[in-house]
Amino acid sequence: MATNEKTKITVQTTIAAPLEKTWAFWTDPLHIVKWNSPSEDWHTPTAENDLQAGGKFLSRMEAKDGSFGFDFWGIYDEVIPNERIAYTIGDGRKAEIIFSSTGETTSITETFEAENENPVEMQQDGWQAILENFKTYTESHH
Predict the structure, then answer these.
(1) Contact at 8 Å (CB) between 14 and 100?
(2) Residue 21 is assigned to a structural domain of this protein
(3) The whole model's pTM is what?
(4) DSSP per residue over 66-103, as a string?
(5) How does pLDDT run across 3-44, given as a tens digit for each residue?
(6) What's the CATH code of the domain at 93?
(7) How far apart are CA 44 and CA 109, in angstroms?
């Protein structure tokens, strides 16, 4: 039986940094190019981010050996500064990011619709790895 209900995947991490800093590091292309990769073999040479409803974002992700690369892009549906980002990925999948703070720490929870080409576990591991890379980067830069 075919269904249009997409599998949703959630990844989450808590960063030892205040909300404003976490938001800035997450959304500023100057920072995005530094943390947006799942492993040491990957990098993001360029990023663009028009952070508003209807605005477009694009991250160019490439293997460092030049063997493979792709554009990860989408359009923002809603942006509530320091709180929530909702967007539609270029292939039509929906995603949402929630920022919540306790003052000293900030939690990021990302929920996204899975694509059908790769196993769900692989997608979850990939997004989680990028999130952990973000955490490491944000905590080590003042």
Answers:
(1) no
(2) yes
(3) 0.94
(4) SS-EEEEEEEEEEEETTTEEEEEETTS-EEEEEEEE-S
(5) 567 899 999 999 999 999 999 999 999 999 999 999 999 999
(6) 3.30.530.20
(7) 22
